[in-house]
Amino acid sequence: MSRASSAALGHRLERVRTRVAELELDALVVTHLPNVFYLSNFEASAAIAVVAPSRLYLITDFRYSAAVASLLAGPDAPPDAEPLQIEGSYDAALARLLDGPLAGGRFGFEAARMTVKQFRWLEDRLAGAETPAKGSLVAVDGIVERLRAVKDAGELDIFRRAGALLSEVATALLADGVVAAGRTELEVAADIDYRMKRAGFERPAFDTIVASGPNGALPHAHPTSRRIETGELVVVDFGGMLDGYAVDLTRTVAVGAVDARRRDMYRAVVESQRDAIAAIHAGVQSDAVDDAARVVLKREGLDDAFGHGLGHGLGLEIHEDPRMAKRRADGPPPVALEAGMVVTVEPGVYVPGVGGVRIEDDVVVTEHGVEQLTHVPLETGLL
Ligand code: ZN
Ligand code: ZN
Questions:
Q1: Cα–ligand 1 centroid distance for 250 (angstroms)
Q2: From ligand 1's centre to the CA of 248, what distance in Å?
Q3: pTM of the model
Q4: Do residues 99 and 129 touch, judged by C-beta distance below 8 A?
């Protein structure tokens, strides 16, 4: 895991504090671990960060005391950080801070990241505090996630390296005939994972998908013991974590000669992806990019076969903001893309009984277009 500079952390914290002030909060309780890491450089399987106006409290347990001490003494320390080691539970340590040094405040908490049980316990504890001013909890959503969506220069450097590395892995596995008739989906997936680790990825970013023939009609198929046959399309979707950041790529491979119907599906998805990438630039609405991907599919009668959103943000997690999808009454509202966002562009068509095609690349949104992070040849036999 590479660390952000102290100055970059200071900038991130300043933006969180601005948002906290706008919401008339006194502090933000950050319990989602990727968000804790983003604001503090502190990576652990358990931790809570509390962003107060002039302090960043880092609550951890004894397992991490040496790691926290070395982080805070080092050159990449978060500014104005104060470590707090828990004695009983994390919740009790948080409560001691909220009804101790920060007593009486309005505390934002990440509603999507706290259990009902934790919330009730904390609320009771604040209500029963022996201080004259009782603190209160205010549910907030996505404050840190929205900041994370726009990458800074250090993050973009990691993405450039990760995109190039994933492209190398993908290009080699296509050239080496890893996806071949007679092999099982599980064998192919195991080879892909091995190659990613050998290339230097810390781990796969998600469970590798290898979906052959009719299995390709399931967008999230898990690899099975099914043997790949000649004449089939095989969707391979994989990604790796490099320096803590996720990259994600899909190619569809033709095994032997495939029929005209499958070739038409393939060409339509290639065109769809090209149109979608051409539609991306800072300021465009995320749903408009999804629309752009559907024009050619509609023309080919394949619009209904594209049942998922066009793409997602990448970062410390594999699925982040922004989501690029159709506008839906019950879905999240579309957002305007901003320069520095990193997104996947992954149209696909899925036809039961026939199979599927998906092609996915990663791009950085720029002022006037994109910077493409992944460069992998398309299946020329199908074009
Ligand atoms: Zn993918
Ligand atoms: Zn993806």
A1: 6
A2: 5
A3: 0.94
A4: yes
